[in-house]
User: Fold these one by one.
Assistant:
Number 1:
Amino acid sequence: MSNHLKYQTSPYLLQHAENPVDWYPWGEEAFCKARAEDKPIFLSIGYSTCHWCHVMARESFEDLEIADILNKYYVSVKVDKEERPDIDSIYMAVCQAFTGRGGWPVSIFMTAEQKPFFAGTYFPKAARYGAVGLKELLLIIQQKWKNERDALLRSANKITEALHQHRTPASQADKTLPDTALQWYQQNFDASFGGFGGAPKFPAPHNLLFLMQQYEKHGNSRALNMAEITLQKMYAGGLFDHIGYGFCRYSTDRYYLVPHFEKMLYDNALLILAYCKAYDLTEQSFYLGVAEKTASYILNEMTSPSGGFYSAQDADSDGEEGKYYVFTPQEIIELLGQADGSAFCERFSITKAGNFEGKSIPNLLHTKNLTDARFDPFLPTLQEYRRSRTRLHTHDKVLTAWNSLMIAALCRLYRCSRDPRYLDAAKKAQGFLENSLCDQDTLYVSIRGGKLGARGFLDDYASYIFALLSLYDATLERTFLRRAVQLIRETVAQYHDSLHGGFYLSGTENEALLFHPKECYDGAIPSGNSLLAYVLVRVNALLPDQGIENILNKQLAYMSGEAERYPAGYSMFLMALSDFWEPPLLITAVPNGEHLNDLPFVLPSDAIVKVLEHPSEEYKLLNEETTFYVCRNHSCLPPMNKRQLMTEIQKQYQTQEVFLWIPKMVLPLLTGIMCSGPGKIQLNLYGTIRPMPMNSRRITRRLPNCFPSLRKMKRNMPQNCLIFCADMKNRHLETV
């Protein structure tokens, strides 16, 4: 027997279309029924790959006894949080106020006027482990609705009034917030296993991007170290799928060993950005390799024929979480043979005892060697075996916001790898969004089966603008920039709160709800307000406009006020703030019939490049050559040609680093290192050594032919010595 969800397109709603509960989609039909029959509303919010949503469905919503109570005393409404983030935002805030925590499923009891009076998350059917059972709760609230309704309505009114309160925005942007956030990260960093705090651990790659930005701008090696350890541990653990690639949603433990097994598009997109940034800063091929593995998972398993990216893959198969991902040694040996199978098991810690319910999640936590590719030829066999053994359900809904993040990630990967496949995939996906999810300046949240979801929200606009700017950065094609500016103006018109500051999650053309929420905090993904601040900083540098500049200043002030209580929770905004106070390299290019296709490959990842169509009075050609106008640190350099630009870019990478060789025999005697001035390193016990001044490792690795002195140094170095790189700014010594 089907209910009122049978004609919906959302995979999550369709999962419940055959429940004995008479579910309604969110809408006036349900609210009218509640008013007419004088019933409260039971609102359940979740998403299609949510494990505990599946559990609550099996225990309660497929249960005839629970269904009978809900159908008799309530009007039941189902909402897909991915398609209606505005509804989810309101009632998640209510849930957090009631319980002190959030998560899905969200369970809300409310009036037909959408006013909540009780909230929770997952409820078992019957009471256990100190938690009230859903059956008991439904009957208690039904009695209170019948006999103590005034008290419930008073509670609902108080909650509604609290939701409508506005914080007073800050008067100006606060440049101290990044330093405060950095202190929090340092205090809460798990030096042994990476990440921050205890279990569970979410990837939150935007936090790592912020840390790496702090290293890039200030040479904070501690910030880079925290990011690198976390990136290495996440990959080494079971959070990364070492057989089929891609990252799972979060780790249930401190070690990144046992994940929550669902894979989300947004996690993998943001992680590609983080690993690319690490590669950009360190030139370690390991990070690029992880980014490419993650991209291969998306392109092979999560990409539609039309170019859009699917939203997620289930954690469960055959009703068991993680069944798809775990192995026994016997399975591996049967597939690969005794010798190869045993070696594979040793490499990936697949043991008889297991590490997850008697079986093993492949991982590399026991080894420091994360780059051994000897076992890669065996992976197709194991992948095929997994697919034949049990299949994961892929949720084929295409979401504008998440697709936009993946487009940005592929653009960055293209710039790191120079592999045109990634740019082609990014362009194809953007074309799909533009043709299928855009109606001129109106965006839509999702599409599935040719049917559009709700009108877009702030996250959709901010993320798509981010994607367009990423495409512009990768190609320098002005079409993407013009489209981004066009959508910024539409976003301001539809979503900006001109009275209190910030941007509403829903716009003037979206459905009116209980109140207008604003999401500022960066959770699993950056908030629309944080991301919009970031793109506004870049667009304001590219195309100075008084209107955009005014909105930018208001946004930075508003977000500073929001972030002051807990700056570490607003990492994407902090990146915008840092770029505002300390602008990235700004290059204005005046081409003279020359294509600048290679320019994105040699520039810093955060550089802002403005390509003019024609010379002007302000920006002229130098000697009839393509001319570049370079500004950094709020000051501008004389006009230069391409050769001079490359020289200037190399200077950007210069640090207070020098190379030196030290006899191996003295290393155990060294108790420390002190800087004694530029070009000198003082080693304890051995006086002052005058090493050979050298550019940074980055330039040395990227352009080795420019630095014969280092090669000469290696040739002349005695065999019993090691080459060291000393960072004189941070008093740090490491091997090269």
Note: Residues 586-652 form one domain.
Number 2:
Amino acid sequence: MLHNKLLFTGIFLSLSLFSSAQAEEKSDGWHLVATDTVGYTGVTLANGSIGLQTGRNPFEVQSVVLNHVFDIADNQVSKVMQGINPFRLSLIVDGDTIRLKDMSRWSQTLDMKFATLTTSFVLPQKVEVRCSATTLRNVAYSGLIHLSIFPLQDIQVSLYTEMSVPAQEYRSPQKEYRTIWGEGGRTDILRVQALSRGGKQSVCASSSFLYDTSCWRYQGDKKQASASLTATLSKGEKTAVSLVASTCSTRDFQDPVNESERRVVYMLHEGDTALLSRHHQLWEELWQGDIEIEGDLKAQQQVRFALFNLYGSGAVGSRLSISPMGLSSQGYNGHIFWDAEMWMYPPLLLLQPSMARSMLDYRFDRLAAARKRALSFGYKGAMFPWESDDAGEEATPTFALTGPFEHHITADVGIACFQYFRATRDTTWLAEQGYPLLQEVAEFLTSRVTRRTDGSYSICNVTGADEYANGVTDNAFTNGSAILALRYATQAAAICKRSCPEIWKDIADNLRILTFEDGTLQEYEGYQGETIKQADANLLAYPLELRTDPKLIRQDLRYYENKIDQQNGPAMSYAIFAVQYARMQEPEKAYQMFLKSFVPHERPPFGVLAETPTSQNPYFMTGAGGLLQAVLFGFGGLTIDEDGIRQLPSSLPSHWKSLTLKGIGPDRKTFVCTH
């Protein structure tokens, strides 16, 4: 039988897991360890196509988040879907189902290098168990749960699995237990397919055990669409078993039913050792883009955790972007915001340019939808939605004014577009995709501005990065991003030897940036020091780099630092302040800001980031992008300009011994920063 042939690899793996247990008991730069469940927030294991939200219970994935699989139900906006969950196990020892309360010496270790969460525990006097969960990088839409079992006395052990169908997501689930007889022998598969509530998607999940038939006895229940394994084990008789599963949808496959089965069959034939070996290899390749901090373990862990989450949420060649919560949850309905281009994209552009390219591909593929949207509002060019769903249409809930009025998003897309060219120097891409998109952005901005009697220009009735101020005129960041996007469009036209309208330059030179009498930036016309949601005017110094005078930058920082909502403001503002202080060679002040960008947002036990100090909506990928920018573009001094990726003078906190930035840009350069 098929399973017989494969088990020996599983046993080998289990023995290695047990032998390495001691090495993983202590947190380090690659491992995050939890030893209690107080205030517990689980980590997400993702591979760019699905995300598995883990929990305290080692045998149960709490939810499966599908990447860019959207449906509309109950007259609401489009929302990314949870998948049918095939990653559910129960462990029964001597007739008793093991619960969390029964476990002693419980601990969890997140191995960020190989993207695996391992839970270890002891059932006193009976059995020691290690359970490892992985979302496979090498098999999209799929994952693996591996159990290693070490009996402390003679016991009977059973494993039970069935699937969970989120009732709020699906209707008419069809559950099946199937036995397939094929060239590889017998294969037993559980399969559940269902239609999304709104009827847009069909989703199917399949799963199967990978086990030793000489040790385990298999039983399938066709009525319940469940399966179990039972073994009688002697004291000291180590054994192992794996559950492999896949969740597919009609967004990605015309036939998700058979595709989910094919992936399970493939994994059974490969075996767990081969699967995990390739998975590890692919993650090692991703970690060629890495950040090493010597002298600050806390910073090292959080920076690498940020990379781990961003890398898990994206995929090379997917032509998809990343939502604010990535694949950790359905937060913000899985829509794509400016968070993608202005926060997550810059560090990925340095460390994973091919993954960053997919984020731009997402926008390019939806350019027609953006053109249609601009036309529908009486504008030219392309008007990108504030919250984009899979079709590239506006998906902002109607109660939020950000949808109709937060127009800096279009300029942000244009800025990211030209930065890709600057980083890669890919003139073919610029001519074929970059400039056509920039041209549409410039045309929109040209039609969006209002010419004033003095020859200057305004942008009226907008919402800026500070979303507490709606319907304002001449918002600093909106106007600043428009200026930069128009300049980039003009430069791109020259590089591609295309003519462009003179008005692009005229608007860029004359679009109003307002200041107070002392020269401090004024966030918008009429602004008088009101509480703001997040940094807005300060963004003109970085990332826009339109504000260059250190005296004025410091002045802006001092004015706006205390204007930010301390309870409900998102994490990114202080990361931006950190970049600016670091570039002005004030590393200790920069470090204070850096800590403020993540410490209040950490949730135990792993340090998962929430959006605000008071929220519970992790993992916040936007915040991850911000703190990575603080390190790369601040302490590390990297910049992207007309000369490509280069390094300004670095500026390290006194206790950091060194900072090493690896795999930067298309040439995979290394930058070492010291005092």
Note: The chain has a mean pLDDT of 94.
Number 3:
Amino acid sequence: MIDDVSKAIVIDFEPFYSADYTLRKMRTEEYINDKRFQVHGMAVAYPGGRTDWVQEKHIDKWLYKHRKAPLVAHNMYFDGLILNLKYDHVAPLMLDTRLMANAVFGPSEISGGNSLEAVAERFGLQPKGKIEAFEGIRSESLTAEEWQALKLYATNDADLEYKILHKMLPLLNRQRFELWLIDHTLRLYLCRPLIVSRKTATAAIAKVRARMEDCMRALPKMKFDYSYQKPYQKDGAKLKREVVVTKDVDESVLASNPQFSQLLLQTLAKHSAKVPMKRGKNGMIPALAKMDEGFLALSSCPIPQVRKLVAARLAKRSGDTQIARLQSLLTASKFGGFRIYLNYCGARTGRWSGGSGLNPQNFPSPARSTDDFEREVAQLIRDAVRCPRGMKFVAVDAANIEARVLAWWAAQDDLVQAFGAGIDVYSEFASGTFGEEVRKPKDTDSKKAAARFKLLRAAGKEAILGLGYSMSATKMEARMRGRPDVSPLFESGDLNTERCIAIVDAYRKRYSKIPALWRKTEHAFHTAVAGVAVSVGKVLFSPLRETGRSGVEVHLPSGRRLRYRDVRVGEHNDRVTSTRKQWVYGAGKGSKLYGGLLVENIVQAIARDILAEAIYLMESEGFWVAYHVHDSICMVVPSGTAKAALKRCSDALSEAPLWGQGMLLGAEGEISDSFI
């Protein structure tokens, strides 16, 4: 069907909506399943650009007639779900011009977030019409004039989408393969929802709420003075005055940054202590985020009241997040199950991102949880997402894929061979850093020994992954202090500022070809900006060939390209080294560029292409790929074939693609009844 894209028909449903019944306030599934849902009709644009309007009563007949036709929409997540839920229709090929725009322009390069209006403007096409005139009007209440206006609006949109489709197709690299990936991404959401255990989700909500209540009960009765600016009017002018109120400490105070900051300030002041601060966009601000070093330090503060306040705030903020996630799962269960929404090319590198209110990429990990309660809740959330009966989840991770790709591209052969030999490079680097044996914990290890191995290896992993992209000692220290799986090493004295500097120096000396790669990449980028193409290994940097646009195209080994548009010298405040001149790209103030960041972008893009080819291979062999994230694939397979599926997917992710000759990959996975 990919070869029939020239025969694709653009569709655009026009449903009823109102001020309180709109996609701005509701999930797509909720909106379509609502009793108020009504389709006025559907605009279509046929090959060649002819447009038509299909009345709602004729849509079933139209779909049957065109049942073999590829269908395209701008946001097929919406139009495709209408097709699925209301007309029991799934097209043989589904494409989305919004997702194509992500690949062609980048997910956020166009002001407006790749909306139809924004993409049309980017191509210099006629502006999209206005729909506001039809707000709140049911089909049966539309006048003849309103029907005519609605048809004109809808067919203009369909025509616009058709023109956009055919302007973008030539700009889509690896067109056939990437179109397949778009179709695959849409089907994850539209065709195979996973089952939600309402019992498990409800039990998890009750457990989280009980924890929050326990933390509130542990707080002593406290009051504090809260000041805020209250708006008022005088003689027609808008003014503000400061108001001071005395408040009891409740959950709303714990959830509010300004209120909690004042509460903490007044509590610490009584003991001649200060609120920890951090650098924000506009100067210093209170460090109140969960992973802020200063805030984490307060959890062991000698003042009991402060420790209890910190525990209660963490329970409140984390609890609200987990309850919202679980409530979304319960809502999803009402409408057929948990639909996996992934945003194709949602990141600059081409990686998928999550979205639509329930992002499985952000599900808490039991393995990374900091205490038994968090670990239990994280597992309950995953247990709430189930396979159909008689099926298993099979998840396979591409082991150390970014570090392997980086070593391969940099020609850091000793590191490449270490990965190929199955050496645990994270443990090895940590052993050299800390001067003691480091390895993955074994079941036979004592609890204390296993915990130390885990801490030291996590530090080695953080160093290997972060330092490969030119991370400084200052940044590495800040990141490690902010990670619960590493930060105890600072308390024990195993890590400090001097040790972090030594780690950076040791990494750059041992793997010297990687710092050389940063310099070569930055030079190649600058050369391409000047109009000359140059290669760094198997990656080609060339001037951007778009009329009226400056920039660089990065040609990846797979054949896909990354585009950096509107490249110029600008000022960028990195919040650490202050404002300095450097390369930036994109609209507005632009995004910063330097050698290490370019290397990171390219390595992640190559890793994405490896994962994508493995996904294609598994689905072409008949496996149901239910979900994937960055470096892992999760399949749903019959229980009796789970072991075979695990081996096949591990082999697929361990085999370098034809364009990655010399790359030594690896993979590991597991079988589970729970969502992985």
Note: The chain has 23 helices and 24 strands.
Number 4:
Amino acid sequence: MVSLTINGVSVTVPEDYTIMQAAKTIGIDIPSLCYMEGVHRFGSCRICVVEVEGMKNLQASCLAQVREGMVVHTNNYRVRHARRVLYELLLSDHDKDCLSCRRNQSCELQELGKTLGVDETRFDGEHSEYSLDTSVSITRNMSKCVLCRRCVTVCNEIQGTGVLNAQNRGFDTVIGPAMDLPLGNFGCAFCGQCTVVCPVGALRETDSIKRVWKAIGDKSKRCVVQVAPAIRVAIGEEFGMEPGAQVTGKLAQALRCLGFDDIFDTDFAADLTIMEEGTEFLGRVKAAFTGGEATLPMITSCSPGWIKYIEHTFPDELDHLSTCKSPHTMLGALAKSFYAKQIGVDPRDMFVVSVMPCTAKKFEIGRHEMQNDGCPNVDAVLTTRELAQMIREAGIDFAKLPDSDFDSPLGLSTGAADIFGVTGGVMEAALRTVYEVVTGRELPFDGLHVEPIVGLDQVKTAELLIENPLPEYSFLNGVTVRVAVTSGLAGAKQLMEQVARGESPYHFIEVMGCPGGCIMGGGQPRSKDPDVRIKRMRGIYSEDESKPLRKSHENPAVQKLYEDFLGEPNGHLSHELLHTHYVKRGRYNEYLDEKYVMDEVKPMAEHSIHTGQKPSRKKDASERAASRVQSDLESLRVMALEAEINRLKQELADSQETVEILKEVMSDYAKRPRR
């Protein structure tokens, strides 16, 4: 332990504490901009400076370690003046269109100005100029960037994707992909975690609000909306409610008040996903244990950020993915087929909106694989934050809304569907059904919760011994089924490296692209509550436990859907509507340009099970692909060479300038009279 004095108050703290942490123990909150507790300590903003007696310069309190006998001042004149000057310098190169900025009134830079008492900036000079980088999922506006590097930490250390880094030096420093490439041309997973931690409006989801308002106002359109499970435990935060608060009924009523024609629940499609994915898993296992060929482990395909990541980073392992679409695209496909037929509406006159916790969903709906008969399964995706903005625009007092139900027939769900919103939930929901199908008995865990995979650890594993199965599954008797769960792309990389080496011991793997799962998706409300993940997780499990039905195969609406429309899980129509395939991309999209279609879009074969065999491709498509690969690689080589040439030119210019300065210094020295 270390004893020190802060603002005249003695305090004793662990020796590995920073001054900022020590100050918090006595109720002193030192202002900062770049700091994120437990995640990011870079000291780039310097707003958190304090004075330490005996040290010439002010110290960044987020980095400076405590020392025995240290005397610290956090709010004297020198410190307060320095913070205000630093803040003004940040503002001097910041786009000040606050009134039109999406982060207005929720901007940490604005809040900091209020805290520091800065009314105006005295500094005006050269301003950085950047082009707006707008991808389908994320918009980068570097004119608003304050170079805090939070996004860099999340992208590199938390997600492990390495897309965002500081490029160039000095005044020319910019945060972005290498070679100044747009996000859409790089191996970005579009997970959106950078948009969550950005303190200003430099990184945000690409706007879909205007399109949705237009669709709602178009009387020729049947506007359908669906809501993901993670939304209902998070959106309340946007209206001052506690994280994890269950607002399912208010959410349904809010969507009704906004003017949507049909209010459906993505949870219905989550139950459907378990039926399809569970059947696919059992098909692969049967083939593997009875002498056939099958690709194991099978890996879930619900998370579009994870899907895009594996396409870029592990393109040779795509056969391990389940062929199932994600739940919301499944529901979109059903809305434009089954439901459209029921109500006598042309699918092309139907506009399907998904409210999702995820920015990657915006990219997903634009994939050519996510359409049927030339009609996209989903037309627009709103993040949780965007829906909250629409509710505010409509003048709806969310907290005072009465509860309402989702509409039939795509609104009934079980508790198993609710837990899709948290890491481990998809696996647990699958095991609840698969174990019962195989053994005829309920999953032998307290409250149906598979405890080893419950919680927020990065990688979780579990084993399940199969004993006395039903006769048709006798080949599994005595088999220990091994499963793994991970959330966050760094954990996915860890498990996929095992798979790529052929060393994975698992039969089934769940991957969520965001740490903690959808409850912490890139489109969820930003929160300063350190326990927000735990509170949202508890809200999800509470929703599950309150349901009368908690196993997907018990959902009567899903059962009726198979009886009246789909036929059977993994049947012909199911594969046509609910299954898909994925494509190789590579780190720099060298396998596939976003606008280039490598494969002809066609339904999957009936009862198809992916094996270790690679799918065949038409000859002309292969030739075109090879040509395109070569062209893309050549373009990348040229770009890389140009970037290197420009860098060398700049270094040469800097060196020449240094030489000239040294010459002048030496000349002045030589002219001095000698004593």
Note: The two ends are 57 Å apart (CA to CA).
